[in-house]
Amino acid sequence: MRLSTPAQAPGLVRRRVAAGATAAVLGLAAAVGSGLGTSASAADSSTLTGIILGVGADESQRIVNWYSSADTAQLVQLTPTASLVNGEFPANAVTFDAIGGANIASSGGFNRHATITGLKEGTAYSYRVGSEGNWSPAYSFKTQDFEGDYDFLFFGDPQIGSSGDVPKDQAGWQETLKVATAANPNAELLVSGGDHVETAGTETQWTSFLAPDELRQVPFAATIGNHDVGSKAYEQHHFTPNTDRSGALYANGNPSSNTSGGDYWFIYKDVLFIDINSNSYNTTSGGGGDAAHVAYITDVVNKHGAKAKWKVLVFHHAMYSPASHAKDSDAKVRRVDFPTVFSNLGIDMVMAGHDHAYSRSYAIKNGAKANPDEQPGAADVYPGPGGVIYVTGNSASGSKYYDITKPDSSASSGAGNGADPLNPDSFWYNSVQNQEHVRSYVKVQVRNDKLVVENVRSGTCAAPNASVEKGSWCYNTPADQPVGSIVDKVTVHPYQGNGQNIQVNVPNAAPGEFGWTIDGYNGLVDLGTAEEHNGDYFSATGQINPIVVSDSRRSLAPWSISASVGDFRDGDKSFSGAYLGWTPKVLEVGAGAQASGSVSSAYDDNGAGLSVSRGLGWATQGHPRGTAKLGADLDLKIPGSVEKGSYRATLTITALSS
């Protein structure tokens, strides 16, 4: 009796699985599983408004906020834009449950927010909010590389309604966002300086503020201004990540009151952003004042500062600015409470609004000019240890401008507003001051070895510019200072310490691959002629053709090789593959390979033998990369009742890897 397995075609038989592709398939299943929410039991007719795309805790997250006219279960639905078919979301689009509650009476309706997680870099996504049968229009955003250089855009006080003409203010705000994002199509964040509206609880102003579609396309990092704080509407429209809403961070110490508050932080690529509610700056009204913010900022920097190369602090009330608010008593309090703390914590830049004029400070250390010789308007600044740059944004909408004020006889350090010895018309702390009654925004280029800060004109004296349209002066000359021209530009070079920092950028590693090969020529495994044993059974032995396993994947994910055999056949005669057993072994060590256990012939144990899938070899998570060779000794025992013949069977090999 001759027994054999059939030959394959000559040459190598190779099976490969790209680690990246496998990971992508499994990742999608996890994202869908983790992202699936409970949809509304039936289609509702909620009106969905005020949709805004907010920042998440990191690059892989976004938070979507919106209003609903009805208190129904709602979702965010997300899919790669490339998966849309004729504008329709595919059946496997991921969903994320929304939460929220009833709005304050003056707002009406209900607020909702949902956190999108698991975003992949370099991907265009489309999303919509609502429920089955009642979806909002679809909006799109794109992620970029999760490492390396990027730009963000900072906007001072839109303060919609401040001019007394909401449509004009909206037009200016929309135009600034349009101009800024068109000029910087790859900008990855929009950062607010606060005062989104004139009256905190007036929803018509919020509706105008939220009108630009750019707020649904680029993630927005909100900041509470003094005109935003007096209502829950700010919190209803802006749910922020990692937010501490304890009483100490509210001006009145009462988070359940009809006010907004809280501090939050997030990391985006190489920047740790910390955003605080500067409306709470003293303890007379019940809040924790500046001391509570100092504790919060210190805790965040101590826990998360080492994860980022840059630390940017954002709040509304500018400490060092050029107009009338620079002399406010609360600004002077902050100039005592904060500067030394910020210097000691290594804050690189503080960005604020409130004073409706542009300024860029000298490097300030411990409440004084860090380098007395730093020149006004310097194009390159080297802050040194503890030096902090303070930037104040002008109006992004044109609703209101404040004129620059003159220094007084107070001190030229600390809380004083004395003159700059190098430029007596400016406050001692400001390197650049500017007011043209022209809309502008600040562009920040985040680079490995520098921050590049530019104040950019987003308008001219012409409409939309509500303040000028209603009679305020404007000295801008469009021919010389057109939209997109630069008011101020500075490159901030970080302090590298007493040593020398060495940096290298590491790109994404090639995903590698996992595969197996039948070693050499895949010839017939011929077990020869079976030997009879006293008429009870026949036996034959041999070895499988060795299998070479290679794994170069960065993930070092576990893998396994298994096999099963069908029935042995000769024409219309056959016997079960269960009578074949084996003893796997590692012929050449590598890739963390370990041999699976022996399997007995069914003749010995009445089991299933190799008629069911059995392990040949495997490796655990974290195994080394490399190559291994697996083999197995075959043990075939056939009942003596089987008829004479030349029987063949096929051994089917399967590889699994996560």
From TrEMBL:
Residues 50-143 form the Purple acid phosphatase N-terminal domain. Residues 152-358 form the Calcineurin-like phosphoesterase domain. Pfam families: Metallophos (PF00149), Pur_ac_phosph_N (PF16656). PROSITE patterns: TAT (PS51318). Keywords: Signal. GO terms for molecular function: acid phosphatase activity; metal ion binding. This is Calcineurin-like phosphoesterase.
